[in-house]
Input
Amino acid sequence: MVKHFRAGREHFLCLSRYIGDSKVVRWEGQRFVELQALPSRGSMVMQPFSVGRRLYMALGSDFSFSHVYLWDEDKQRFSKFQELAVQAPRAFRYVPAADVELLLAPSFKANSVVYRHVVVDLSL
Output
């Protein structure tokens, strides 16, 4: 699966691979340059999505937990943010609904799952 996203003025692609590492690449004007390889055995889906100012990327897996990564603008790469317990996801879809943000994860092997985006302020 190939998905596109923008961060600032830069253009990127997410390239998922079932066997081997999935990759994040950046457009350099004449070609794409690899920025990051992510372990992804059994991945059929790699979906970037934005919630407010935050840029996330969900990486599914048929054999282990799926992961959500958070974009680090300074490092120009994703860092592991959270695991998702969804079996064999075939898509991720961000859906803003009234006053909540939802991430839908339809599954090939089990029940589809809906996650709610919650920001917890730990600064106190």
